[in-house]
């Protein structure tokens, strides 16, 4: 990703909710250009949720009466709208961010941006045929996967005991051969579950 604003942290340096929103909204701007997403990001708000939940992210949006996917809504006829789409919110799960690799997080954001694209055009959104087609085009999943599986598992080479699990590439993942297990003082064995 081309970093366009110096205050956007590196993905591996994201340390808190503000960082996560800064990084994710910068990625959204990049993805909008790269994948030709028809979204108005000035009408998108961001939040981070720390509530445990199964979905990695979600779009919170107002209900537009009689809106149907595939039928563009006439925003000027929608109450409270000044002719523009009503604002919606991309809600990010901190737990999912912790669990996902960068590529998985980017894919998650593209999935949510497709919901925004649909909502801003049709006033509603779902996972139907139109969504599936767009998901293929922007190389994201129709359903977000569960995020409980770590990317890397580290075991003691002597006794096989689990020493650590990591959810994405970090210094420990790269330099694990310099560490020894607490149990046996042995080298670590790295594996990738499923
Ligand atoms: Zn979805
Ligand atoms: Zn051991």
What does it look like?
The structure is a single chain. With 194 residues, this protein is α+β, with helices and mostly antiparallel strands. The chain folds into two domains: 11-137, 2-Layer Sandwich (Zincin-like), CATH 3.30.2010; 152-191, no CATH class. It is 30% helix and 15% strand. The chain has five helices and six strands, in the order αβββαααββαβ. The strands form two sheets. The protein has a three-stranded mixed sheet with strand order 1-3-2. The two termini are 28 Å apart. The protein binds zinc ion (2 copies). The site of one zinc ion has 8 residues, from loops.
From the structure above, extract its key features:
single chain, 194 residues, alpha+beta, Zincin-like, 3-stranded mixed beta sheet, 3-stranded antiparallel beta sheet, 5 helices, elongated, binds zinc ion
């Amino acid at each position: 990703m081309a970093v366009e604003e110096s205050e956007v942290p590196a993905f591996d340096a994201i340390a808190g909710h503000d960082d996560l929103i800064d990084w994710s909204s910068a990625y959204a701007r990049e993805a909008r250009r790269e994948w030709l997403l028809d979204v108005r990001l000035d009408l998108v708000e961001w939040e981070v949720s720390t509530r445990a939940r199964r979905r990695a992210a979600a779009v919170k949006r107002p209900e537009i009466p009689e809106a149907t996917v595939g039928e563009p809504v006439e925003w000027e006829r929608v109450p409270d709208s000044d002719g523009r789409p009503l604002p919606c919110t991309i809600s990010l799960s901190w737990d999912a961010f912790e669990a996902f690799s960068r590529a998985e997080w980017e894919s998650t954001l593209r999935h949510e941006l497709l919901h925004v694209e649909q909502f801003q055009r049709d006033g509603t959104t779902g996972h139907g045929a139109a969504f599936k087609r767009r998901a293929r085009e922007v190389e994201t999943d129709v359903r977000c996967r569960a995020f409980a599986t770590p990317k890397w598992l580290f075991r003691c080479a002597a006794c096989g005991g689990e020493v650590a699990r990591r959810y994405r590439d970090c210094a420990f993942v790269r330099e694990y051969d310099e560490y020894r297990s607490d149990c046996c003082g042995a080298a670590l064995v790295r594996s990738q579950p499923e």
